[in-house]
Amino acid sequence: VQLQESGPGLLKPSQTLSLTCAISGGSITANYVFWNWIRQPPGKGLEWMGAILHSGNTYFTTSLKSRTSISRDTSKNQLTLQLKAVTPEDTAVYYCVRSEGPANFDSWGQGTQVTVSS
After folding, report:
1. DSSP string, 54-117
2. Is the pLDDT of residue 58 over 90?
3. How far apart, in Å, are the Cα atoms of 95 and each of 57, 107, 108, 118?
4. Which of 79, 85, 95 lies closest to 116, judged by CA?
5. Which residues contact 34 (CB under 8 A, 6 or more apart)?
6. 4 near 108, Cβ under 8 Å?
7. Quick one: pLDDT band at residue 103, thresholds 50, 70, 90?
8. What does the pLDDT read at residue 101?
């Protein structure tokens, strides 16, 4: 499975971040597969943001739940992350990651840098 993230590299505070992950070599509706978004701020560890399951159900980390949504387009085999009201603290490399079950991360995109700055 190959994953490719795309989206704007630079946003201003209060804007909405929208990132797309194009999936090849696997189906977004495959059973038992989670499609995750994980980010890494500069100098910090990885942070799991949320996931959309094969069923279409979504789950989010508590701290970001009010600002985050994940959707999918099964016809294009891609998923989209939206993060509202970004601040400089949302500056990070954002990764699209496949897992079988909630924690067995087995395929990673190359990541895309997002910078929030006025």
Report:
1. TTS-EEE-GGGTTTEEEEEETTTTEEEEEE-S--GGG-EEEEEEEEESSS-EEEE---EEEEE-
2. yes
3. 19, 10, 7, 23
4. 85
5. 51, 52, 53, 54, 98, 99, 100, 101, 102
6. no
7. confident
8. 86
Q: Could you count the other beta carbons within 10 Å of the beta carbon of residue 100?
A: 14
Which of the 8 DSSP states describes residue 15? P
Rounded Cα distance between 32 and 10, Å, is 34
pLDDT tens by residue, 7-32: 999 999 999 999 999 999 999 999 99
List the structure tokens of 114: 């997002």
Q: What is the mean pLDDT of residues 70-94?
A: 97
Q: Token match 């989670």: residue?
A: 34
